[in-house]
């Protein structure tokens, strides 16, 4: 009940804002801009399906775990490494425009990086950092068998 | 201490503020334009906009019972067109709390994104 009410509010607000947008005269009408980023290809969907089913943990990111090309992707890799995840599977979205756009639609999440564990979307940079701070990330990594429960996971956070 | 006058919020920032305020009736709404931190990044090379990266803190009762992902999705869907359009919002750093949660953890350390 509550949620659908909120979604309606969001939808209404999107409509209102679309009117605002078009009055700004920013080139294409908003509807066209949506469409440009809307369609995931069959190839991209199959590749994403395979990737998240074949890797217990995978990060769709800009750059590679060894060489992240974006601060948000780097932050996610650093958080995982801090927890003792040594081998991180990374998909470099900069190498493949279809994946780069496709993953946004696949997950219904407009930004990269995106972290999947055991086929389930866990979150982007903010969620990972917040789960790290609350201790939920360690719990999740242990529960899903990414980390062993008794593993040495010295979690240090210099900001605390 | 010299006082630097803050640049007034740009049209996108005003739009973000209005949409979030109207929809979530937040008790706290903080918006920081962090675009200057990212303007040298490869992805920003051909972008003129000074409104690409924002840190947004929203405290609203409407988040209660919702997961972090659900909360962020609500905000993303509210700003869908601005994020999809060329030269629009490139990234949002989102802190979404209920008033109770915000009282417990008032300060969220910033991730190192240098």
Automatic annotation (TrEMBL), chain A:
Pfam families found in the cross-reference section: Glutaredoxin
Organism: Coemansia pectinata
UniProt GO molecular function: 2 iron, 2 sulfur cluster binding; disulfide oxidoreductase activity; metal ion binding
Annotated TM spans: none
SUPFAM superfamilies: Thioredoxin-like (SSF52833)
Name the UniProt record assigns to this protein: Monothiol glutaredoxin-5, mitochondrial
Cross-referenced NCBIfam families: Grx4 family monothiol glutaredoxin
Domain Glutaredoxin: 58-122
InterPro entries, per the entry: Glutaredoxin, GRX_PICOT-like, Monothiol_GRX-rel, Thioredoxin-like_sf
GO cellular component: mitochondrial matrix
Keyword annotations from UniProtKB, A to Z: 2Fe-2S, Iron, Iron-sulfur, Metal-binding, Redox-active center
GO biological process: [2Fe-2S] cluster assembly
PROSITE patterns linked: GLUTAREDOXIN_2
From TrEMBL, chain B:
InterPro entries: BolA (IPR002634), BolA-like_sf (IPR036065)
GO biological process, one term: [4Fe-4S] cluster assembly
Membrane spanning stretches: none
GO terms under cellular component: mitochondrial matrix
Pfam families: BolA (PF01722)
Family of this protein: Belongs to the BolA/IbaG family.
Protein name: BolA domain UV induced protein Uvi31
Species annotation: Coemansia pectinata
Higher taxonomy: Eukaryota, Fungi, Fungi incertae sedis, Zoopagomycota, Kickxellomycotina
Gene of this entry: uvi31
């Amino acid at each position: 009940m509550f949620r659908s009410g909120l979604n309606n509010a969001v939808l209404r607000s999107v409509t209102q804002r679309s009117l605002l947008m078009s009055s700004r005269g920013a080139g294409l009408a908003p509807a066209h801009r949506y469409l440009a980023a809307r369609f995931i290809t069959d190839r991209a969907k199959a590749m994403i399906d395979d990737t998240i089913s074949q890797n217990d943990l995978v990060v769709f990111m800009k750059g590679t775990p060894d060489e992240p090309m974006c601060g948000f992707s780097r932050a996610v890799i650093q958080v995982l490494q801090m927890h003792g995840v040594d081998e991180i599977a990374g998909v470099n979205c900069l190498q493949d425009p279809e994946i780069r756009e496709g993953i946004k639609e696949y997950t219904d999440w407009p930004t990269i990086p995106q972290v999947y564990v055991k086929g389930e979307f866990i979150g982007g940079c903010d969620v990972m950092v917040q789960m790290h701070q609350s201790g939920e990330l360690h719990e999740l990594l242990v529960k899903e068998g990414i980390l062993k429960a008794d593993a040495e996971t010295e979690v240090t956070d210099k900001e605390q | 201490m010299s006082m630097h006058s803050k640049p007034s919020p740009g049209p996108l920032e005003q739009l973000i503020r209005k949409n979030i305020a109207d929809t979530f009736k937040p008790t706290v709404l903080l918006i920081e334009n962090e675009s200057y931190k990212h303007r040298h990044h490869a992805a920003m090379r051909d972008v003129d906009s000074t409104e690409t990266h924002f840190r947004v803190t929203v405290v609203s009762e409407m988040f209660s019972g919702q997961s972090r992902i659900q909360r962020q999705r609500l905000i993303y869907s509210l700003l869908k067109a601005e994020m999809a359009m060329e030269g629009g919002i490139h990234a949002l750093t989102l802190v979404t709390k209920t008033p109770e949660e915000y009282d417990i953890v008032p300060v969220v350390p910033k991730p190192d994104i240098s």
